[in-house]
Amino acid sequence: MDIQDQLKQFKGKRVLLLAPQFFHYIDEIRDAMKAAEIDCDFLDERPLPGFTGKAIARYLPMINERQVAKNVDDQLTAKSYDYLLVIKGESLSTKLLADFKQENPNAKLVLFLWDSVANSKHAEAFFDQFDMVYTFDANDAATYKIEFLPLFVGSQFDPRLIDQDQQQDIDLAFIGTVHSNRSELLNLVEKLAASAHLSFYDFRYVQSKLVYAVRYLQDRAFRKSPAGTVHFNKISAEAMLKTLRRTRTIVDVTHPKQTGLTGRVIEGLSMGRKVLTTNSKVLDYDFINKENVQIFDEKLTNLDEDFIMKPYVGDPLMVYKNFSVYKWLETVLTGTAYVPVDHRSVVEKD
Q1: Mean pLDDT computed over every residue of the chain
Q2: What spatial distance separates the first Cα and last Cα of the chain, rounded to whole Å?
Q3: By three-state DSSP, how is residue 193 classified?
Q4: Do the Cβ atoms of 15 and 332 come closer than 8 Å?
Q5: What highest taxon heads this organism's lineage (predicted)?
Q6: Residue 180 buriedness (CB in 10 A; 0-12 / 13-18 / 19+)
Q7: Same topology for domains 1-151+324-332 and 155-320, yes or no?
Q8: Quick check: helix, strand or coil at residue 279?
């Protein structure tokens, strides 16, 4: 059975997706729904773009709430929906949810947190108004009695689409936003990679020059970022995928307030690349071969060259199927608990 077939039951359903536009992830959700012939309308829960929109959503939520509630109302005049799927929930309001329920009394409301509850306090107040609340953070799932569901990977990370014999001429790669203690740990990896004569593609994204200035003043490690590693423009999805395909080992520094696996980890492992990460929770997944993972922290004194240079161990298809956006959508639309794909079913059906 093709992995997309699990969404056949939702063909023709109408979904209102309310989420921040974050890198390539929203496009992956929308593409998967389109492929499954699910009618999806997307509204950005940060109406103002860039750093300004993010700052307003976090520090002046009432401004954001009013505009987003109006946008939802405008959408409801044109169409009815079977689902309201909210990601992160920075702009949620009592009015927004009440209006949606009034116009769509039989619809299911689902909230997914791809950030920790500590970073999503606004959404926490609305948990009881949803039919199902999911989080990518296993610790938060236990603490707040909500459902655990890991992040997803888009179809472009399907290992069957990747030439596993492609030359991997980049030893280590990091692509992500600068925050928390990332600069300190990435600087450490930079230093150790240089000592071991290993190549390191290090792309650190900063949202604006204002964020850069504040972080430069407050973060000593950030001030020591190697030349050429800090960027104000996001890397394109195409360039990122091309880089990861050339890379042996993906570097991941998880936010200290999170325990959920980041996109870097699951994308890398799904496409047949190894991972060097600060997140020990990756070891909790039975379908991930532990030989493809190493954990590190600020005490790291040298890079394991054997680990970095040796090929990926096992078949990445099982990892991809467990993290695929199709499985993620099936889980949230059925409102069920996340159940990993059994290894035997992957072997037998493909």
Answers
A1: 91
A2: 7
A3: helix
A4: no
A5: Bacteria
A6: middle
A7: yes
A8: coil
Tokens representing 70 are 């109006």
**Residue with the two structure tokens 């707040």:** 144
Q: What is the pLDDT of residues 50-72, one digit of tens each?
A: 667 677 767 777 888 888 999 99
Which of 82, 64, 78, 85 lies closest to 19, judged by CA?
A: 85
> Which CATH code, of 3.30.420, 3.40.50, 1.20.1070, 2.70.98, is assigned to 155-320?
3.40.50
pLDDT digits (tens, 9 = 90+) for 90-148: 899 999 999 999 999 999 999 999 988 988 888 999 999 999 999 999 999 999 999 99
Residue type for position 132: M
What are the CA-CA distances from residue 193 to residues 171, 305, 345 (Å)? 9, 10, 40
CA nearest neighbour of 159 among 20, 16, 75, 272: 272
Which H or E run contains 173? strand 170-177
Q: What is the CATH number of domain 1-151+324-332?
A: 3.40.50.2000
Residue carrying the six token digits 């078949």: 315
Residues 287/307, Cβ–Cβ less than 8 Å: no
State the DSSP string of 97-132: HHHHHHH-TT-EEEEEESS-GGG-HHHHTTGGGSSE
Q: Residue 137 has which token pair?
A: 């953070």
Please state the pTM of the whole predicted model.
0.88
Domain locations along the chain: 1-151+324-332, 155-320
